[in-house]
Design brief:
With 150 residues, this protein is mainly alpha-helical. The chain is 57% helix and 3% strand. A two-stranded antiparallel sheet has the order 1-2. The chain crosses the membrane at residues 123-144.
Length: 150
């Protein structure tokens, strides 16, 4: 019988390398194309990890940890690496392509909802003007959702 303990540091605290590696362990079957969707454990861990990545240095440290295990875990589907946050219902971070030579200075791009909404608000207003009043409700709902996310 094997017992796996998952250490979860306090929200906002910088994750240890062990915690980072443990967080991604349930995701390996998804990242290696064995599972069609990430497991609940994978998504839970990704969300917890994301809460600990507020600072650029934290993101760089996580990248260094991942680089250490790349030779051990082997090849993964990098499209799935980039999409794991979206598939887990979180869109605040895009994880980098995993490779031994990845650049940790550019690790984990932060996409807060307000940036997303600012960019798409302009596009949707233009769309609304071009398409007429029939799409007003759809645009209004989107803009209200963006406003509530701030």
């Amino acid at each position: 019988m094997t017992l796996l303990l998952v250490f979860r540091p306090a929200i906002g605290a910088a994750p240890s390398c062990d915690a980072v590696i443990t967080s991604f362990a349930p995701c390996l079957s998804y990242l290696k194309n064995t599972d069609a969707v990430p497991s609940t454990g994978c998504c839970d861990n990704v969300k917890v990890l994301e809460q600990q990545l507020a600072e650029q240095q934290d993101r760089k440290n996580v990248c260094q940890c991942i680089k250490l295990v790349v030779p051990i875990i082997g090849a993964v589907n990098n499209t799935r690496v980039e999409d794991v946050s979206n598939n887990c219902g979180s869109k605040h971070y895009t994880f980098p392509l995993i490779s031994p030579d990845m650049n940790c200075d550019k690790y984990i791009h932060h996409h807060p909802a307000s940036d997303f909404c600012q960019y798409h608000r302009k596009f949707l207003l233009l769309f609304f003007l071009l398409m007429g009043l029939s799409n007003f409700i759809c645009v209004l709902i989107f803009l209200l959702q963006c406003t509530m996310r701030r």
